[in-house]
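Hey L., structure's done. Input below.
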Amino acid sequence: MDDIVRQALAKWPNVPSCTGWLMLDRRGNWRMRDEVAQASGSAGTPIRHEALLGFINRNYEADERGQWFFQNGPQRVYVELAYTPWVVRLSANEDGALALRDQGGCTFEPAAVFVDEDGGILFADRSEPARIAVLHDHDLDIFSDHAALAGDDSLSGDFHWNAQVTLPLQSVRRAEVAARFGFVASPAAQV
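Output:
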């Protein structure tokens, strides 16, 4: 958390939190949701300002109930999650070495790989508790280049992470992801 945010919290400790105004979409874009977007259920307007994106990413955390928020100075802005609290991008360099980075640009080291019923790919990392991230859909080709799927329709198989590690593909139901990994997708209903 930024020092300026800590100072604001100390100066104004009782600022009410807000919900519904910020969303992390399925592709890792932060979106501002005004009253019209909230009322219509739309995702809102993508935030493009680099300094603001950096500020959001540095001050993004979860509370004790698994509700993710952006600490905007003294105000806690709870985040609507389109799927998971993290979205990762997968890349391969010219030597074939793979890298995963989350929406804030930080390295994400996978410990497990999951496939949901819609073919969405999710990675859990090695932290405690494990962070769960959905793979950006533009990176499915890279993923499939490094996965060996079973010959049946079960979406089972293995993912080969940098030649040293083979991670089995595990099935997970999308509706169970939040409870299994301890986060709240829509804190507006919880706060």
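The mean pLDDT is 91. The first helix runs from residue 3 to 11.

-- N.
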